[in-house]
Design goal:
Layout lengths: L1 E5 L2 E5 L14 E4 L3 H9 L7 E5 L5 H10 L3 E5 L7 H6 L6 E4 L7 H10 L4 E6 L5 H11 L3 E10 L7 H4 L12 H13 L3 E6 L3 E6 L17 H4 L3
Length: about 240
């Protein structure tokens, strides 16, 4: 584990398996990210995102990190967990521009409702670090991307799990699930047919979709011939 400091707050970079990860404390937050992730988010500073939505908060570390990195005007976090994150709730007490919503699955209308009510003029940056499930992530994209401003970004983390050997072994919890890569293929194709997709950037860890101009063609974002990672033989 590595400890970094930003804006007077310490962050513990803890990427161990879920059950082994620590808990956030006051002024010391667990951040499930490597330096590669942090470099990516630092690269977005030039766009000056001020209205930010994070879906999937874990221990609240990334929400606090985005607060220190971008100095947003509105920062909203949504998570399926029902129990509030104590350290995060203490952190936001004197920061009314930060709002947290618990007990909300990423693909449900309540998540879109939280986004609509808190970002009436649109969102600059969406970070989806929730289920990493193809169907839920796609539903989230269709629900939330229409709210992103032109020039804004929708980031999907940890897309490549299906192409790693440990997830392809027989008996793995996720071995029979569709790869997130299906969504990347769909979005990449849409950049050729719709002006609403300005670009799709893929790195080892994230997919970043920059919004262009136009109306999101939801009815067309359902391409046939989806390809699953295991069927492609990728590892």
């Amino acid at each position: 584990m590595e400890i970094i400091e930003l804006g007077g707050v310490k962050f513990v970079l803890d990427t161990r398996p879920g059950k082994l990860r620590g808990k956030s404390k006051s002024n010391e937050f667990v951040l499930v990210k490597t330096q590669s992730y942090l470099s990516f988010y630092e690269s977005l500073r030039s766009f000056k995102p001020k209205y930010i939505l994070e879906i999937g908060m874990f221990e609240g570390g990334s929400l606090v990190y985005f607060d220190k990195l971008y100095a947003p005007k509105t920062l909203v976090g949504v998570d399926i967990r029902r129990t509030p994150i104590p350290a995060l709730e203490r952190y936001k007490q004197k920061r009314p521009y930060i709002k947290t919503f618990y007990g909300r699955s990423q693909d449900q209308p309540s998540t879109r409702g939280a986004a609509q009510s808190n970002f009436p003029k649109g969102i600059d940056l969406v970070v989806d670090d929730a289920s990493h499930d193809y169907e839920k992530t796609k539903a989230t994209f269709l629900n939330i991307f229409p709210l992103v401003k032109a020039g804004g970004h929708h980031v999907i983390e940890d897309w490549g799990w299906a192409h790693r050997p440990n997830h392809q072994k027989q008996g793995s919890t996720w071995s029979d699930k569709a790869a997130m890569t299906n969504l990347i293929f769909e979005l990449t194709v849409m950049t050729a047919v719709s002006r609403v997709f300005a670009s799709v950037t893929v790195t080892e860890h994230v997919v970043c979709i920059r919004k262009g101009k136009g109306v999101l063609p939801q009815s067309k974002l359902d391409l046939s011939g989806h390809i699953r990672g295991k069927e492609m033989g990728l590892i």
